[in-house]
Amino acid sequence: MVMKWYEIMQMDKTHPIQNRSGVEKLPEDILRVAYEEYADSGHGGDQSFERICERGGFGWFEIVTLLYRRVLRLDLRLVEENKW
After folding, report:
1. Which terminus of the chain is less hemmed in, N or C, by CB atoms within 10 Å?
2. pTM over 0.85
3. Between 60-80 and 28-38, two packed helices, what is the crossing angle to 10 degrees?
């Protein structure tokens, strides 16, 4: 089942992200996708998802970069499978 953006943003379980203007939070599902990309790029052995959250979470730029890489990888996979 695909969730709409407003359903994701209403989820209760959130975790901190690093931000210059103070602590903000994002839904866990979004942050776990970013973490999966982080782990897939060879950094997963460094810290667990939970440890990253304990240390204040990813920064905004890291989250955007990791999610962008995920989108590129998914797009490339679709092209390779001739589904694009």
Report:
1. N
2. no
3. 70
In a domain, 30, yes or no: yes
Number of domains, the chain = 1
In the predicted structure, residue 10 carries a pLDDT above the cut 80: no
The whole domain housing 68 covers: 26-84
The answer to whether the CB of 28 falls within 8 A of the CB of 11 is: yes
The tokens of 67 are what? 């999610």
Q: What are phi and psi of 67, to 5 degrees?
A: -70, -35
Asked, for residue 8, whether it belongs to a domain, the answer is no
